[in-house]
């Protein structure tokens, strides 16, 4: 029997987007991912947000775009357990940036925003305030009026003050401009995470001594390189646990861990549960297919 996640984006073939509004969201869905983009506005509570390999605090006005196939989840803080959590989620096609209309001068900023090589994009509270009422109204509209408002919101976000926009997971200087060296390192990790990687290799890749490459990566991304590599491997492992029937041991080795005990420990530290429990929880929340 094959399984599909309940949290599959319910976009029909003729849908531009779907928008949902929860006046009081319980934030009890586990770490998961979608094939499509997700724009998420969270109001009134604080807590922890996981996007890709980055776990960080979120505030009462949190506005984030999560890229396709990126693991993510939200957990409200204990002190906000009894506070109403209002959430708007807009999901739209992973193929949207490739549509020809977004190559026009008027809409190109939207495509450029969505094509950033990062797990997600976080917007400032000022930006969240500017689009808040529009996002709250969007789920209640239909037809062309809804399409116009959706594009208006995306355009507002794409034109936001870049000093107040941050790519989640890769750099923290508020700029959309990526370092060529950082991109080379990220691509190298994506292609080689299943094997042993050394700082000497990273240094040679970007033309720096190993120690300098390590400091450079930390300065530009806010990640220790080894933490980034470990987080990348764990995220890949989590996806494989969901998508394949491989054993936990097989997955650990395919994701670059040579010791199953170390893999279990790091997975639990980052995901909050063991690999086996993670698989069981997802199988308990799926719908049989066929």
Automatic annotation (TrEMBL):
UniProt keyword RNA-binding, yes or no: no
Residue ranges of domain HTH araC/xylS-type in the record: 183-281
GO-annotated molecular function: DNA-binding transcription factor activity; sequence-specific DNA binding
Gene3D superfamilies attached to this UniProt entry: Homeodomain-like (1.10.10.60)
Keyword Transcription appears in the UniProt entry: yes
Protein name in the entry: AraC family transcriptional regulator
PANTHER family the record matches: ARAC-FAMILY TRANSCRIPTIONAL REGULATOR, TRANSCRIPTIONAL REGULATOR MTLR
Annotated keywords: DNA-binding, Transcription, Transcription regulation
Classification via InterPro entries: Homeodomain-like_sf, HTH_AraC, HTH_AraC-typ_CS, Tscrpt_reg_AraC-type_HTH
SMART domains xrefs: HTH_ARAC
Taxonomic classification: Bacteria, Pseudomonadati, Bacteroidota, Bacteroidia, Bacteroidales
